[in-house]
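Lecture notes, continued. The same structure-token format from the folding unit now serves as the input rather than the output. Read the line below as a description of shape only.
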């Protein structure tokens, strides 16, 4: 019999503390914040369906300080989510080739962020036009 021991890979106890894993975890947590914002909007729809008083109470909640702080947290999480989404997108999609030249990943990210920003501005303009 051989006296060699089988190889046992050492386990790093703090594997989760490395930068790529922390970045991944933060990105996934921003998705939870987006789901939380969706629940706030769903609560508004439910209150609107129940009664005018329930909807007024929901609007009063939205005007409170805690709600404003919560919405600032939601906004920061959504902005981080959008940024990381467009940073990941060119890494996961097939290489984009135009006129036999590969388009740089940074350009794909910049164009995606630009389109998202333009969509946001157009949505604000449309909402202002509809509400006036």
């Amino acid at each position: 019999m051989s006296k060699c021991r089988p190889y046992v890979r050492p386990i790093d106890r703090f594997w989760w503390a490395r930068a790529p894993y922390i970045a991944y975890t933060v990105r996934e947590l921003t998705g939870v914040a987006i789901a939380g914002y969706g629940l706030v909007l769903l609560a508004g729809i439910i209150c609107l369906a129940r009664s005018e008083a329930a909807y007024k109470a929901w609007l009063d909640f939205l005007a409170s300080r805690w709600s404003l702080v919560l919405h600032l947290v939601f906004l920061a999480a959504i902005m981080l989510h959008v940024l990381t989404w467009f940073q990941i997108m060119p890494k996961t999609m097939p290489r984009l080739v135009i006129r036999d030249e590969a388009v740089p990943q940074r350009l794909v990210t910049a164009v995606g962020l630009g389109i998202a920003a333009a969509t946001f501005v157009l949505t604000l303009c449309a909402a202002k036009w509809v509400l006036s």
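Point for the exam: The CA atoms of residues 96 and 103 lie 6 Å apart.
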